[in-house]
């Protein structure tokens, strides 16, 4: 049930009737007619722009259209009043029965309230995390993992067929560095002094890898040159790192559907096939790029390269796919990887990448647009940095990782639920401060506590009601006399509940799961405000002594809030709590 969609359908019906009667020209396009919350809540419950967007094509004054439309809308029992404002905006106030009935709808639909068919079963691939398999996940990966996983849950809730995918960057030079670093720990396991020279990975996490290599190979690799052991150690260490990464993801509550390997693209003809596809479109050519804008580097020299004509699809410059020495650029396997995703039949692709990939966005969108002939949109979400604080100071690096704070450091400090919620308290492209002290505060300033506290308060009410012999199952509450919910503070909570289905569709269209976290905080605020009003006005308390019928009506409202909070936290990957500890 989406009340805003229901009221928009009413507006469209009235406009159709006006056209049938000649009050509007036939054949008008109503696609831009919207019903949404007014900018100022004092103006009403909903507003429609119908008269404003139809005035010019209808050749009429917007206020004239609005006044006729208002008269028709006012005849519907759901509309308490329809008022024309300014040049032709139309503000609507809904009858109390609408809000009261909404509570019954929430309880009747339960966890399904707010679910949408917006996605219409379209297949969407969300690639996220995709950390290099060279060590444990760090705090930057945490935010990307949470955003990607929450977005996947959001799109699933809104009707998409979602695939979560991890792209293993195991084809570059960094995995050779991993192998050399692991080999030093292998030497250490054999009683030799490791040489952790500059450029190698110094973290203690490679000590178990060295021990495992010793268990498999004994001392047989010690007297051999790199050409004899590099490939085997690289594969061995990469596999162990990926197992560690899977465990890190599990600690955060993230499960991938697919793991794809960059290395699997090399030597299989997949890179060549993708570039041949572009070549057949006339988008691959041999050429010389202009020097970089600004100061030209001293070592820059014009040289012919194999280039992708990405400017044909919106990029600023064409991009090299093969170096002058015949080796692939890093962009070439990425093109092949996305070509593979297009070939798997996805209707939409989403990449969640670190902020340092800003220069990658246009070229990758250009490649996907070309490879799919414009059929498959690619949305790239950049994840800004997370700054960690504790005791008023920057949080120090992890000794185990050697150079950074790990995912495990964060989760072990504050727990999975807090970590996930806090990572969604800012839009993905805004920097985020993660203060270990503040995220554990029990105050209104801590969003995760505030939302969880609202759910726990409602659970407490349900327990007390059950102990008093009042039936509080959802079916009984949905059948209660909800006309008893007539106070403005109670109606305000119902109005906020009505926004949930609309919020889901807005967040899904924009691929912005943080909107769910913001909404849950606002809903929790309405619940807490009603609770606090009950301290002043006994008639607003959820439990009315000696009046089971009124208690059930008020508890029905509270329980509806719990249903939506639970659903929203589920999208965020956070477990609702029944009591605070």
UniProtKB/TrEMBL annotation:
Residues 5-94 form the Arginyl tRNA synthetase N-terminal domain. It comes from Rhodovulum sulfidophilum. Keywords: Aminoacyl-tRNA synthetase, ATP-binding, Cytoplasm, Ligase, Nucleotide-binding, Protein biosynthesis. Belongs to the class-I aminoacyl-tRNA synthetase family. It is found in: Cytoplasm. It comes from the Bacteria. GO terms for molecular function: arginine-tRNA ligase activity. Gene3D superfamilies: Arginyl tRNA synthetase N-terminal domain (3.30.1360.70), HUPs (3.40.50.620), Isoleucyl-tRNA Synthetase, Domain 1 (1.10.730.10). It holds the Pfam family tRNA-synt_1d. The lineage of its organism: Bacteria, Pseudomonadati, Pseudomonadota, Alphaproteobacteria, Rhodobacterales. Its main location: cytoplasm. This is Arginine--tRNA ligase. Its EC number is 6.1.1.19. Residues 451-580 form the DALR anticodon binding domain. A motif ('HIGH' region) lies at residues 131-141. Monomer.
